[in-house]
Amino acid sequence: MTVKNISTSISEDIIITNLTGFITLADVNSWFNSFEKTCYSFIRQEKKYKLLVNRKGYTPEHFSVQKLWKDKFFTNKILENTIAVAFLLEEGDILIHLKQSNTKDNVMFSSNYDQLIYWLTKYK
pTM here? Predict the structure, then answer.
């Protein structure tokens, strides 16, 4: 089982946010408070940013956890200030489906952390 990680950090213009391990509704709320503050530190300065969303090893306690995450993450203010988004996910059917159905140039899905960091670093 993956160790719980609900942290958010910054590396230059990339916000790296982690939501991994066995996750509860309280964890999503705690994660989002930190994530939102980090994003707004850029937004207040009128700076755009790139996001690396680590969901590799994510196990929701209940289906409502996933719904809460979606409702919080996909807010207009946060996403309209995003240059590119990379999602780190487990290998499997969901990752394959997301890769095949993705139509956006500024979104990437992968199970390889280094590949996503490289892509975000080079993305203009």
Answer: 0.93
